[in-house]
Amino acid sequence: MSGKNAVAISTELHLQDIQHRMERERQLGPGPPPACRISLIEQSKYNSTLCAKERPSLSPMYYGFMCHEQHFSSTPLAELRPLALSAMQVRSNNKGHYLLCRVVTPPSWMVGTILCVEDPAGDVQNMIVFNYPGTRRTKIHALQAIFPVGSVLAIREPLLVPLKSDNATLIRVYSPSDITFVRSGDRILADVTWAYPAPAPAVIPRTADEWDELGGSHFETGRFLASAATYTSALELHPSEPFLQLQRGRAYHVLEYLSAALADATAVMRQRGISDHTRSKAFYLAGCAEYGLSHYDTAILQFKKALYLSPLMPIDQFKLWDERCRGRVRETRGDYDWEAMFKDAQVPGKRIDVAEFVGPMEVQQMPYRGGGRGVVATRDIKAGELILVSKAFAASFPDELYGDRVELQNSITGGVESACSSEVLSQIISKIFGRPELAPLVFGLYAGPSYPDPAHNYPLRVLSDHNVRSPLVQELNLDTQRIDHIFNFNVFVPETLRSVHPLDISSHGDGNPSNEIHLFGNPDTTPPNKDDLPSALFLLPSLFNHSCDGNTTWYNFRDIMIIRAIKPVQKGEELTLPYVQGSSTLSRHERLKKYGVTCDCSLCLADREDGEEACRLRERLLDSLGSLRSPGTSPADIRSFLCKVEGTHSALRGPIRPASGRVRYELAIAYEIMARKSMDASFRIQAIAACMAALEAYGIMVLDRSMWGPVGSTLGGDEYLPISAETRNLIVEGAKYCTQISLSIVSAFVLMEDIPRARGWARATRILDNIFVGCGDALFKARHESTTDVLIQSGVVLAD
């Protein structure tokens, strides 16, 4: 057993133990909660001390659940009755009640924020708050800014559960909206007497400058919610200080609480008696917020006002913002700098700053899909045409993770979700918490059969709320369990567009021909570690229905999704894309279970005609495809392997056989290796033939299979094109390989010094790339820079 497998099994057993314990909790009846004030307070202080210490170099992994039962309250606090800890029922949601409590020790964090609270009678209880924004991987001093000692909280309909031993209990709060921070003058505190004196809080700043220093320290260390909370506390004591409100607005902006940032900026603008410099800062903050809200023309006006009021604002800074805004406006019309996006996407941790584009598509009700929704073309669409550019609502990549990680067992699929998935769920909740006007866009997505079908119209209109608000006040009732389900049924694994490496035609190397040839990856034979998979929620792309044989393809520039048509689409025809890929309908169907859908596309129907036994054999064969890449494998071995794969297809199936396409390209590579070893051009001819056959397996019609002779006027001369421009039979899986295979043919003909054919296949390569990727010459050159220059020196131009 490998170490990796041992860790995976240990994780699974640990999560199963937690799940069994939760099942046991549901079966046990209610009972009185135990209480021990001194021991709980001392233990909480000890945990807080541990939390304050530096983490070990190896970050700990925590485990939780996704899509399991999570309670949240939808009853307004004013309609609930107070409840003492001594009266709370274990394993009950305590419906109709709220718990008034006070934080008595510094908080700590482990999967959620852990608080030790007391009620007015002096009874104490530990409480864990899941999903609260700004608390994940947060240092204790920042946690104290959000949940300071002495804070009075009202918990709506709290859930009390037993721990591993029934001798201890814990309050679980799943939704941040169930927590209300109670201020000293609130009516809820009328006639409330506390049995114990208020716990001594941490040192509280006295002056506005001291508050600014504390809030600024949180901001500089990346604890932005703690920073916003600190400035909110400062404003309660110093409401007439505009710089405190601007600083809070700055924290809001980084948190992407854009409406709140704009509200703070607007409030400062309207203040009387402030300096032009301060007002200029307010206009600048407003411009940044409007930019984030995609109001680019308004953002330019705000930046102009900031520049007019303050000559200290560098003109170069204004020009930069002006250029960015105008660039975003162009992008809303589909005019992108694709090369810059591609290069930015190769930078670890980089997020791509572009505007969204919605092309000839709209969301409609689909009667033949049971009344659900889908996306249809609003006009005739050509193959290769841009359909949609969408920014992720939330996204996480492995190169962005740091500190403590949380893995989640998915209660729907039974599998374990990656740390990136856990991070995305946290981002979704945080974004809705900070911008509640976006909630309808998320809750308007499909949440599975356990929830009512969403409205047919989408996207819903977003009405921004520009009222000044506290970062810890949430008027929206957040159903975190529904968010889990929405994520489960709509999650994407971003596939960032990478450089392409065909058969290498350069003369450089160590003398071993096989080392000069780049093999394309095989995602089915070597599945990536789930911890290496990014995760993202996209809104409009989630409305596209699945088809393994879809008429669109998608790829990413990190958190930006591009959707293009790969086939001609008629007006009113549904636009579909593949959620998953696999060697046959069996593996695809298994992966589609997560989304609760089945597929009856042409590929799946053809696989079913082949028979289940044949499909299982095909799966096993392709799972062993990596074995063909060993040094001792000969073309004869691969031909034998190809015969076995071909034998899993019905004789009546037709030429579209993507499984065979992958094996045929492996055969082409083997022939090219033989050609270089033996200096025998006949092997290269066989490599070209194998590449052509691979293209046909992906639905491309090869018109000219000749290997020598003239390609003059009878074949079109300078317009010679060896493939058909008809794309109705293209399959989406070809997007990964076809350009690479075609470019390998170009390379082979260059090595054979057949420049006319190389040029024709170069034109074919560009046609295929325009269909599957698009984006023009600059991006094509950037992605194929390893071969473009060499081919140009040989007289073959791949881009105009």
Automatic annotation (TrEMBL):
Keywords: TPR repeat. Residues 350-580 form the SET domain. This is SET domain-containing protein. TPR repeats lie at residues 208-241, 280-313. Pfam families: SET (PF00856). It comes from Botryobasidium botryosum (strain FD-172 SS1). SMART domains: TPR. The keyword Transcription regulation does not apply. InterPro entries: Gramillin-biosynth_MTr, SET_dom, SET_dom_sf, TPR-like_helical_dom_sf, TPR_rpt.
